[in-house]
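Progress against Task 2.4 (sequence-to-structure conversion) is shown through the following example record, which the project officer requested during the mid-term review.
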Amino acid sequence: MEDMSEGISITDLGLNDFRMDLLAYMKEHRDLDRLPFGIHAVVHGDKPGVIFVLKNVNKKIDIKDKNRLHPFYTVYVNMDGEILINHLQPKDILDDMRHLAKGKKEPDKELCNEFNRATKDGRQMEKVSQLLEEAIESIIEAKNEEDIESFFSAGTTTFQSGGFSGLDDFELIDFLVVM
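Structure tokens generated for the chain above:
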């Protein structure tokens, strides 16, 4: 795995580089824990859609270490509601977010104006809300599939264990609109 001639190192498989970025950011921005939920940004990108960052608030959920960010979930949904990257691939989503935000210190006023026009300054967020529902549904579907698989395998089952039910199980932390 560590063979550099292949161009892959063990750190490419983990989230350590993102943790280091976050620690450095938190040193400069000490009030990070006081930011409100639901903040968002708008960026240019090749894959239009929305990247959601959610937090599970249902204490009954235990996903057996499949989501490496638990209780946080990231989902990238395109504008048609198709899941581009699901919550079980957080590194891929974080890589996309890093690439989309790299070198940007100020909001793109033109993009923000375009988003504000499309949403009537945030008063008409039906499209984003619909995509949020698709993102949460993808998490629920993955959990239901895991429950069914565990029912037919040896060992402890998670079937009928009071899993995710929907929007009430998650808080929207933030989202990134890719246009």
